[in-house]
């Protein structure tokens, strides 16, 4: 039975970082996922410079590299004499065209799907946050209108309303937490690749 190199959306997501406001992946992480040496990726880039303009691939500055290392608690960031290169989503696609293997194509498709899923999640999360805020504002407005209609409230009635508001606030807060955790709770898409013997 041959070894399987399992590529999951979750594994890919953990290797996507934001640098200069752009989502990118490190050359070493891509090499690990493609099951090749980092130098092979760098050689492919060197042989095809026109395919990798600065908006598709760039080398990190020392400051960017140190900042990334301080933010991410991982062993991926080993000491290196050469600053790593990072690839944008389009740069990763171009990388697949120069690596020219079925495995590279399959892995790249998985990476592209993950980038798409992350964009979709970010848009959905943004919309849900807006909807939750609108619901909160609407409920507050309805409550204020109801209070204006009723001139005299008993102490028990005010206490019940206060309790309801607290429960509502807690429910909305829990709902926001659920949406924040949605990404990690998502089912992980798995794609298997056989390792070269």
TrEMBL record:
<protein>
    <submittedName>
        <fullName>DNA-binding domain-containing protein</fullName>
    </submittedName>
</protein>
<dbReference type="GO" id="GO:0003677">
    <property type="term" value="F:DNA binding"/>
</dbReference>
<keyword id="KW-0175">Coiled coil</keyword>
<feature type="domain" description="KilA-N DNA-binding">
    <location>
        <begin position="15"/>
        <end position="98"/>
    </location>
</feature>
<dbReference type="InterPro" id="IPR018873">
    <property type="entry name" value="KilA-N_DNA-bd_domain"/>
</dbReference>
<dbReference type="Pfam" id="PF10543">
    <property type="entry name" value="ORF6N"/>
</dbReference>
<feature type="coiled-coil region">
    <location>
        <begin position="118"/>
        <end position="145"/>
    </location>
</feature>
<keyword id="KW-0238">DNA-binding</keyword>
């Amino acid at each position: 039975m041959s070894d399987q190199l399992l590529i999951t959306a979750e594994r890919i997501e953990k290797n996507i970082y934001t640098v200069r406001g752009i989502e990118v992946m490190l050359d070493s992480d891509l090499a690990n996922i493609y099951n090749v040496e980092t130098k092979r990726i760098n050689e492919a880039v060197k042989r095809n410079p026109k395919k990798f303009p600065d908006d598709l691939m760039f080398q990190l500055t020392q400051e960017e590299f140190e900042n990334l290392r301080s933010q991410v608690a991982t062993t991926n960031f080993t000491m290196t004499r050469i600053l790593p290169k990072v690839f944008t989503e389009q740069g990763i696609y171009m990388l697949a065209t120069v690596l020219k293997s079925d495995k590279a194509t399959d892995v790249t498709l998985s990476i592209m799907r993950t980038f798409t899923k992350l964009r979709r999640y970010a848009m959905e999360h943004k919309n849900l946050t807006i909807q939750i805020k609108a619901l909160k504002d609407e409920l507050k407005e309805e409550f204020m209108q109801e209070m204006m209609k009723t001139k005299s409230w008993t102490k028990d009635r005010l206490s019940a309303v206060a309790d309801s508001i607290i429960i509502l606030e807690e429910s909305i807060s829990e709902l926001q937490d659920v949406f924040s955790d949605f990404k990690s709770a998502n089912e992980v898409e798995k794609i298997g690749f056989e390792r070269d013997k």
